[in-house]
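Query form — protein Phosphoglucan phosphatase dsp4

QUESTION: What is the three-dimensional structure of this chain?
INPUT:
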Amino acid sequence: MQWCTDFDAFDLRVRLPAVVSKLHKAINRNGGVTYVHCTAGLGRAPAVTLAYMFWVQGYKLIEAHNLLQSKRSCFPKLDAIKNAAADIVSHFTFLIYHWCNGSLKY
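ANSWER: The structure tokens for Phosphoglucan phosphatase dsp4 are given below.
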């Protein structure tokens, strides 16, 4: 099943948080091991892996990228990962602001 359009940085940016969440659940369910793949293994799968290492495991993005590159030459869209992280932070900042001011409505 294709979860993200090939070579589409915006689609990756939008879908990445949900996919990383699913990856995290799969890793926890499978004793810490999960196989991540896409068609060529050069863009989407590495981007998901990097985002997981960055957001969940606490790596700096450049450290995660260097580690991944040492294992496999690939071309993940780093800007999509950075922008997705900024989207997550800005969304939570918005929620916290409105919750603190009593204007958050569900």
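ADDITIONAL NOTE: Helices lie at 9-29, 44-55, 61-71, 78-100.
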